[in-house]
Specification:
mainly beta; 9 strands; 0% helix
Length: 100
């Protein structure tokens, strides 16, 4: 099935659970583009890499403060499990379920 798709995600942050839709668009060459869109806005995926069912990426957060986020996740079936590293705030668990 691959890793491409849109996932309804929850990231457990110091500000509480943040719901978002994480979109993965497989470029076919071991990379991906996409975005993570939630109540606090949308962030574009940068440096998206696919290794089997493993994803790694970065995002530049602007709200509530500028910060580079580093994400990693594993996709198994329709389930995404991973984390987002927010520098001084540490690693935040991220889980998701593929839409549709």
């Amino acid at each position: 099935m691959g890793v491409a798709g849109s996932y309804d995600c929850v990231t457990k942050t110091p500000m509480g659970d943040q719901k978002s839709v994480f979109t993965v668009e497989d470029c076919g060459d071991g990379t991906f583009t996409g975005k993570n869109a939630g109540a606090m806005g949308s962030m574009d995926v940068e440096n998206g890499k696919i290794d089997g069912n493993q994803l790694t990426w970065t995002m530049n957060m602007t709200v509530p403060m500028p910060m580079k986020l580093e994400g990693s996740a594993t996709v198994e079936g329709d389930t995404l499990t991973g984390s987002v590293n927010a520098g001084a705030f540490g690693s935040m668990p991220m889980t998701g379920t593929r839409q549709g």
